[in-house]
Design goal:
Layout lengths: L12 E6 L2 H4 L8 H12 L3 E5 L2 H6 L10 E4 L7 H11 L2 E2 L12 H10 L7 E4 L11 E3 L3 E4 L2 E4 L2 E5 L7 E4 L8 E8 L2 E6 L11 E5 L6 E8 L4 E7 L18 E3 L3 H13 L4 E9 L2 E9 L7 H19 L41 E10 L6 E8 L2 H10 L8 E3 L2 H14 L11 H18 L10 E13 L6 E15 L4 H17 L7 H7 L3 E7 L3 H14 L6 H8 E3 L1 H4 L6 H17 L25 H31 L12 H5 L6 H5 L9 H15 E2 L4 E2 L4 H14 L8 H18 L5 H11 L1 H29 L3 H16 L46 E8 L1 H13 L15 H9 L8 E8 L11 E8 L5 H5 L5 H6 L8 E2 L7 E2 H8 L48
Parallel strand pairs: 1-2, 1-3, 3-4, 19-28, 24-25, 24-28
Antiparallel strand pairs: 5-13, 6-7, 7-8, 9-10, 9-13, 10-11, 11-12, 14-15, 14-17, 15-16, 17-18, 19-29, 20-23, 21-22, 22-23, 26-27, 29-30, 30-31, 30-32
Helix pairs in contact: 2-7, 8-9, 9-10, 11-13, 13-14, 17-20, 17-22, 20-21, 21-22, 23-26
Subcellular location: Cytoplasm, Cytosol
Keywords: Acetylation, ATP-binding, Cytoplasm, Kinase, Nucleotide-binding, Phosphoprotein, Transferase
Catalytic activity: 1D-myo-inositol hexakisphosphate + ATP = 1-diphospho-1D-myo-inositol 2,3,4,5,6-pentakisphosphate + ADP; 5-diphospho-1D-myo-inositol 1,2,3,4,6-pentakisphosphate + ATP + H(+) = 1,5-bis(diphospho)-1D-myo-inositol 2,3,4,6-tetrakisphosphate + ADP
Length: 1058
């Protein structure tokens, strides 16, 4: 001891720092900031001398002339002679903080995973593809559109592809076609970016050897763990590069991270990693997914940046190591006062206490926001379409057999790119060229026209995406034929029904609407300044989950909303996969109320055609909504013929445009692929395609041929001339097409389109609400059947929030009643430091939530509560959290939910109870006929902390509602509206109150009124993991784990969050 320290350092322990200068220097400084902070503290104890080797010594001098030291800090980086350092250590035998030989393992991800598994440390499911030469073909590896298979192990997209070389940081994530496809490349931070999305890349790399592993849904958050010896671990969370690739930095240019508490299991994992690789100072990446934790990378030597508390602890831990190794006779007890005088800066504290709704509650107390639940309809979309045709062509029948396993009576569904490409190839060969090879028989002409329509739909956009197009082939007729081997007979289909469903795609306007509404919520729905949500979310106190139905337009609306809400950047596919959980059982389907809806439509047809309505005894001029068919125009029967006439006029104009387009296509080969529009790129845009508009083409991906097919079908189905019968169920579709073309295709100058819109709107405003019930009681019955599961989930959300808030309040009350507890904790902490068993995450357990209070449709073991570490966070109430649940769905569920909320008191079990909606709001809702795109219902719950825990007034519910897109610019045909003319986008109306200002709706009252119509909590089935390529959409709450969400920070934020 002291041999290398000279006279001045005699008797001191020499700590040698043998690392490359680029890893430790910070400008002209000898060491980087974390290294300097820690070594300065170690030196300040007076027991150590720090000796820095330098690049010249390390690279040029023989190890025999290297300085002598007692303890050695040495770790590999690019250019570092690890073998040479090992030889020095063997020669001089210093105490090694991080052993050198195991550092070779860190350069090979295969060996890292092998070592982790050897020590029983959980890693993601993975498989190895080893190539001896680039592009070597391997018999155990195969790739399909939505998966790769390695040694029989199938990895469905999204999956992760990592080079086996640990120094190669080019990691790829491949997304399924059902989410739009594409690939995201992760890389070392370059400026403010750490990833890049490539929508056109669908195939994996073959240049080298790779690890393929299962994508772990983490809610957009990565956790980095830093050990200093096996007894100490510090963890920080950061926004994952998987989501939008933007590195969020503070005003000093440092990446923003937040300390978090590790679970007992994670602490054990940290200890095991430290021991397995024999690296005392070690960083590794932790994935928290579905309530479990996995190690996905081990980095070796790593220090935390910008944490004075960590610098203190690390210096103390390293000092203890050095003394025990080289001077065990010296006491390692920490002095009462640490020898350095470094005061950790104190950032301004913040409190999540604001006035509820921006006002003082009716009892005068301030309130705290506890829960935000929003049910939202998707954004603007293209009209939904369907083509039906009977097919007898051999090619199409063979295709059906190919994909149904050769079963002649089994229906086939084609959705993947490979399947749809096969269908397109077959259809191209069957479609006759215009004017060639067709006779004049009407059926043949119609069949050829439908085949052309199928071909046009399949070619639309230039690529396939299962979200937007799907084909069903249903066998209709069979015959017995001789088997090919001559042994007996077999059935073979000779006719099938082809059903092609397409359209309903989120438009550029729909994405813009969703994103802007997300921004509105970010700035207005949460208490505080304009960035209230970001400040809340960034401090790890925001429990966010986003749910979506199965429909592509709904999923993409949810992703676009999340982008605006959380201030993200980039394309929607990574956001969708990382943050949006699909739950079709809760947000899709009308099957439960199909019988009642048929009855309602039949009665509606009777009212319109006869003009006779039933008047109930409780119908008054003050309650006009109680009548059967309320909202229907009195002259509906007169408007129908006018609707038909105007529809035919518009259809004829589109037919002429389509004829011109068809003639142009006839001049090209029928096998040419027409690529007028790239739908994948359109998903990343919020602006219209100016070039298409300037060329006189329809907006979006629709050509004139498909536009004509849309209008022709409407004209044909709206009125059956042979039977002289109107089909009122077509009225919403006519209105839908009118509104779409008036908004997106006004440049085509279709005559009478605006007049048709006015007539269709009058009828649709009466028809659409009454399809969900002809009177309030039927609306309540239908609404409760459609939204039963969603209503049950909302009640669970509210109840869980209440239980968590009461648990926190109870803990706080116990602490306040035990004034000695703080002194006891301080004494225990002092003893803890004196014995130097520093385990930073054991110093204080988070008691912020009841583990009993979780979503009932979540698995108890998979709802781990991850919390901010209060010792490091400058937050006065880290145990207070806000729960946000966003449910994205279609028009049917919005109508159903609203009908239950406004008519629940009409149920026999609730007779005499006051309703949830005020009389003024009922009047307003009656006048609000359409629940347009992005319409939403908001339920916010506030806690009044100044009343007793058992008082029903402790929790107040606020109900607000928006009818979504404002169509008044279309009604006025207002060319002066810039957003309408230039962006094809209608503005979204802000939410309005459903209660009187002076009213006070308690949670108890809300539960009482909704419970009869909601699915009981005990009926929610346990979570399941779907099989197949949609497996990344783990059911419901399994995808977004509570409180592990990405960090959105306002681009121009200051340290105080304002």
């Amino acid at each position: 001891m002291g041999e290398g320290g000279g006279e001045e350092g005699y008797g001191k322990i020499i700590v040698g720092v043998c690392v490359m200068e680029k890893k430790v220097k910070c400008g002209s400084e000898a060491f980087s900031a974390p290294m300097r902070q820690i070594l300065d503290r170690i030196k300040a104890f007076g027991e150590f001398e720090i000796l820095y080797f330098g690049d010249k010594v390390i690279l040029e001098d023989p190890i025999e002339s290297w300085p002598l030291c007692d303890c050695l800090i040495a770790f590999y980086s690019s250019g570092f002679p690890l073998d040479k350092a090992e030889a020095y250590a063997d020669l001089r035998k210093p105490f090694l903080v991080n052993e050198l030989e195991p550092q070779h393992l860190l350069h090979d991800r295969r060996k890292v995973y092998e070592r982790l598994k050897m020590f029983g440390i959980s890693v993601p499911r993975y498989a190895l593809v080893n190539r001896e030469a680039p592009y070597q073909e391997l018999d155990y590896f195969s790739e399909d559109e939505d998966y790769v298979e390695v040694h029989g192990n199938r990895f469905w997209k999204p999956f992760v592809e990592k080079p086996v070389d640990g120094d190669d940081h080019s990691i790829m994530i491949y997304y399924p076609s059902s989410a739009g496809g594409g690939m995201k490349e992760l890389f070392r931070k370059v400026g403010n970016r750490s990833s890049e999305f490539h929508p056109e890349v669908r195939r994996v790399r073959r240049e080298g050897s790779y690890i393929y592993e299962e994508f772990m849904p983490t809610g957009g958050t990565d956790v980095k763990v830093y050990t200093v010896g096996p007894e100490y671990a510090h963890a920080e969370a950061r926004k994952s590069p998987v989501v939008d690739g933007v590195v969020m930095r503070n005003p000093d240019g440092k990446e923003i991270r937040y300390p978090v508490l590790l679970t007992p299991n994670e602490k054990q994992m940290a200890r095991e990693v430290c021991i397995a690789f024999r690296q005392a100072v070690c960083g590794f990446d932790l994935l928290r997914s579905e309530g479990s934790s996995y190690v996905c990378d081990v980095n070796g030597w790593s220090f935390v940046k910008n944490s004075y508390k960590y610098y203190d602890d690390a210096a103390c831990v390293l000092r203890k190591m050095f003394l025990e190794a080289k001077a065990p006779h010296l006491s390692s007890v920490i002095p009462p006062t640490l020898p350095w005088k470094v005061n950790e800066p104190t950032l301004p504290s913040e409190r999540l206490t604001r006035q509820g709704s921006g006002v003082i509650g009716s009892f005068g107390q301030s309130e705290e926001l506890r829960c935000v639940i929003v049910v939202i309809r998707h954004g603007d979309r293209t009209p939904k379409q369907k083509v039906k045709l009977k097919v007898t062509e051999e090619k199409l029948l063979n295709l059906m057999l190919k994909y149904n396993g050769g079963r002649p009576r089994t229906e086939t569904k084609l959705k993947s790119a490979v399947e749809l490409q096969d269908l397109l190839d077959a259809t191209r060969m069957l479609v006759p060229r215009p004017g060639v090879g067709s006779d004049n028989e009407a059926e043949d002409l119609e069949h050829a026209e439908k085949l052309r329509q199928v071909k046009a739909v399949l070619e639309e956009g230039g690529h396939f995406s299962g979200i937007y197009r799907k084909v069903q082939l249903k066998p209709l007729k069979w015959v017995k034929v001789q088997k090919s081997n001559g042994e007996g007979e077999e059935e073979r289909p000779v006719e099938a029904l082809m059903v092609l469903k397409y359209g309903g795609v989120l438009t550029h306007a729909g994405r813009k609407q969703a994103e802007e509404l997300g921004r509105y919520f970010r700035n207005n729905m949460y208490p505080g300044e304009g960035t209230g949500l970001l400040r809340l979310h960034s401090t790890y106190r925001h429990d966010l989950k986003i749910y979506s139905s199965d429909e592509g337009r709904v999923q993409m609306s949810a992703a676009a909303f999340a982008k605006g809400l959380l201030d993200l950047e980039g394309q929607l596919t990574p956001i969708l996969v990382s943050l949006v959980s699909k739950d079709s059982s809760m947000l899709d389907g009308l099957e439960n109320a199909s019988i009642e809806m048929v009855e309602a439509k039949a009665r509606l047809n009777e009212i319109i055609t006869s003009g006779v309505r039933t008047t109930h005894s409780n119908v008054t001029s003050e309650c006009p909504w109680m009548a059967d068919g309320a909202g229907l125009p009195s002259n509906a029967s007169e408007l129908l013929p006018k609707l038909v006439t105007l529809t035919k006029k518009v259809t004829e104009q589109v037919r002429i445009l389509a004829k011109d387009e068809d003639e142009n296509l006839a001049e090209t080969s029928p096998y040419d692929v027409i690529l007028p529009y790239d739908q994948a790129k359109a998903l990343g845009k919020t602006n219209i395609d100016i070039d298409r508009i300037a060329a006189g083409l329809p907006c979006g991906s629709e050509g004139f041929l498909l536009m004509f097919a849309r209008w022709k079908k409407l004209a044909r189905d709206l009125y059956n001339e042979r039977k002289e019968r109107f089909d009122i169920t077509q009225i919403p579709d006519v209105y839908d097409s009118c509104k779409y073309d008036l908004l997106h295709n006004a440049h085509l100058n279709l005559e009478d389109l605006d007049e048709l819109f006015k007539v269709a709107q009058l009828l649709a405003d009466g028809v659409i609400p009454n399809e969900y019930g002809i009177n309030p009681k039927q609306k309540l019955k239908i609404g409760s059947k459609i939204a039963r599961r969603l209503l049950g989930k909302i009640l669970i959300d509210l109840r869980n929030t209440r239980e968590e808030a009461l648990h926190v309040a109870d803990l706080k009350s116990n602490q306040d009643n035990c004034p000695n507890s703080a002194k006891a904790a301080k004494a225990a902490n002092q003893e803890f430091r004196q014995h130097f068993s520093i385990k930073i995450d054991d110093m204080r357990r988070s008691h912020s939530t009841s583990e009993m209070s979780i979503d009932q449709d979540d698995n108890d073991n998979k709802e781990t509560k991850y919390r901010l570490d209060p010792k490091y966070a400058n937050v006065m109430t880290p145990e207070r959290h806000v729960r946000t649940r966003l449910y994205f769905t279609s028009e049917s569920h919005i109508h159903s939910l609203m009908n239950v909320i406004r008519y629940c008191n009409l149920d026999e079990s609730l007779q005499g109870e006051a309703g949830l909606v005020s009389r003024n709001a009922l009047q307003h809702l009656y006048k609000t006929k359409e629940l347009d795109y992005m319409s939403h219902i908001v339920i916010r719950m506030f806690e009044n902390t100044e009343v007793a825990l058992e008082d029903p007034r402790r929790f107040r519910i606020e109900l607000t509602f928006s009818h979504g897109a404002d169509s008044s610019p279309l009604e006025r045909n207002d060319d002066s509206d810039a957003s309408l003319k230039q962006e094809h986008t209608l503005p979204i109306m802000g939410p309005e109150r459903l209660q009187d200002v002076a009213s006070y709706l308690t949670l108890e009252k809300m539960e009482k009124m909704i419970r009869p119509f909601a699915m009981p909590a005990e009926d929610f089935p346990p979570p399941t993991t779907p099989a197949g390529f949609s497996g990344y959409f783990l059911r419901s709450a399994l995808v977004l784990e509570r409180l592990v969400n990405l960090w959105p920070f306002h681009k121009n934020a200051h340290t105080n969050g304002k």
